[in-house]
Known about the structure:
Chain A is mainly alpha-helical. Chain A has helices at residues 13-37, 42-54, 57-82, 90-105, 113-142, 146-166, 200-218, 220-230, 232-237, 242-269, 280-290, 295-319, 325-345, and strands at residues 2-7, 346-351.
Amino acid sequence: xxxxxxxRADASVGLKITVSLLAAVAALLLxxxxxxxxxxxxLDAYALILQGAFGSMFAFSETLNRATPLVLxxxxxxxxxxxxxxxxxxxGQLYIGALAAxxxxxxxxxxxxxxxxxxxxxxxxxxxxxxxxxxxxxxQRFGADEVVITLLLNFVVxxxxxxxxxxxxxxxxSMGWPQSVPLLDAADFPKLLPRMRVHLGLIVGVAAAIIxxxxxxxxxxxxxxxxxxxxxxxxxxxxxxxxxTMLKVALISGGLAGLAGVSEVAGVKGxxxxxxxxxxxxxxIVVAMLAGLSPIGTVLAALFVAAVFVGADSMSRATGxxxxxxxxxxxxxxxxxxxxxxxxxxxxxxxxxxxxxAGE
Amino acid sequence: MVDQLGDVVLSLEGITKxxxxxxxxxxxxxxxxxxxxxxxxGENGAxxxxxxxxxxxxxxxxxxxxRVAGAALPPGSPGAALAAGVGMVHQHFxxxxxxSGLDNIRLGTEALLRPSSGRAARSKVQxxxxxxxxxxxxxRKVAALSVGEKQRVEILKALYRDVRVLILxxxxxxxxxQESDGLFLVLRRLAxxxxxxxxxxxxxxxxxxxxxxxxxxxxxxxxxxxVTANADRRAIADLMVGKAVAEVKRSAPVPGEALVEFRGVSxxxxxxxxxxxxxxxxxxxxxxxGVAGVSGNGQAAIAALLSGLAVPDSGEMWLYGRAVTSADxxxxxxAGVARMPEDRQHDGVVGTMSVADNxxxxxxxxxDFARMGLLNQRAMRARATAAIAAYDIRCPGPDxxxxxxxxxxxxxxxxxxxxxxxxxxxxxxxxTRGLDVGAQAEVHRRIIAARDxxxxxxxxxxxxxxxxxxxxxxxxxxxGEITDAGPSERLDRGTVGLLxxxxxxxxxxx
Lengths: 360, 510
């Protein structure tokens, strides 16, 4: 008796949908195990998560609010991974983007909101983008591994931000809290709904997803990004400027992560602090993988991850199950999707013992 | 011709293998007897590779059975195939470069913990060398051996394991004609001592020279079996494609102005494995220059320079009377240079992009396909639809991914991409490697038509038959040096072979 793997030529759309649904079911079944171990009903827990994420207008607004930075960091990973540029530094780029927004938007310029908001967004995009262009250049010049550099830069950036908010940028009116001077009112993102936290950043994120989708599908730049990502050798032979394309990708990827930082500062907190992001940059990678590197799928995947986190918080308060369950749900979903992708690429053959070959 | 043939040592009975709807092997029967050299011929996609993978246990057949000396092999077990005495020499050698030939031969045959007896192994290998004529210094490191010597080590490795069936996958692709003749002698000798050999090849000439029997596969089925003594080139070619192949006629060249000129060009590092030193030659409008040489002697450097992937370290490459100073494939394409890459699947197409994308890829920023940074996808599909019809590219349509195309159809796609622009200079690097006879004739016809239209063509090929069919003039590369061998009608295979082996032109061309 044995199992064999054979590569599949091409997976049908029906199979892809089936595998995705099975992956979701598998993740829910797996998460049921620790819930049962905690002595609770998994169905109740799932119902509470659902309710906590979508049960009221307020809950839904919180979910959207949580999804906003994930859309942007998710897109940052999508564009980079499509070109096989491994940007693990969205967390640091997010902070640098937020820092740029605060530097520009906290009194250096006096502009009406209609100009101030685009200005801090551009500042954050450029700052985050440059933060990724540098590792991309180091890779091209010296063959330095961008995974290591971007990953380690995250810690450098966060410590740098910490130093700033406890030193030169510290708000004198903060009563000793390590946080920066606040953004001017003109720089604050408007809220989308009265008395709700969901803000302009969500629209920025969705617009970015649509723009990225158009860029990838319909533009010369998108064509070149796809070609470079799928086959560097063939792209190079065909005369596509591989290095220049990679730098553009780096700028866009880092820029999108920087926008996530702008959005958090201008839409939620109003000031910069070293706890601005609970790992949105890393979660963006998960979001992008869940979305299969599709820009539109990224919006949905960000919504899913945000709903799990927001819903799990509320479920945790109701049942006493730790809200770490949310991490478990997201992690197991990702693993299920990755395993599902494996089954899309390979066919598993089962060969019972005692039947070595036909015709025996 | 056929020596006294022994018992059937290998038999494939009714082998069928399906991949989805594709039937790669369809009820194939094949027998091999002791002392027999069987040539396995067939175009790409005919099912040769699948069949060999089943024989080796890499794939499991859906139906049928493999027997070695009468005993059925369990499907899907490479270990069982090895133990039964089936050995294979792949195109790409599997040798540890930092070990000696002898160590490579012994590698994997000895128990991990038992102290091994080097002396016994050495004497066994020496005996095999004496018997077979596979002369090679087994104490030298493999890295220091020539390609031909490495191949001999690979064959020794198989013989050391007492194989009864030896499979050689396109063994002559890396050899000079003289080395190939040496290999054929060895194979004949081994066969006369009882070894059964399967010889996979595209080159009809050598199949006729070495084999006892020829089996031709087509579309997963056996198209025919011939006794070599009674076969001729034409009959085999017809079997391979299933229809009569018209030979491509070539008229006398009318060379015009010099379009490309290499002036003392050297290229040492970077893109090419082997360097090029002080190369001088001219490529004129209306002529085809063939570049002969054993693989890895500087062809890649010439191709990289003409493809715009590199510029000379020293010396100058002139195009239309001006030196090319920057490595810019796009500029060369815009200047009317058509480039067919050596490895068309790897460098020629982006497999996961569509046929339409791959046809437009060299000109995607041009005004035909782009406006203000937006792709004109309608124009790209229209161009692809026209190309699919004009070049007979077999594919589901312009939106099909290029990776689904067979090798021949990928080459037709590349031809459509580069020839539609009416190029002035054409670089055809291994233009028909791995193509079936029909596709080969089609590629040759297109190249000759372009030359008749006034293009300067350089054909780099390892297949001398192809070069003699196409080239008006030969240059030969050896160890990075270029020899001008002159017009092709004054040359024959032997002369070119000696130049490929590094003899000077003064000694060879009288």
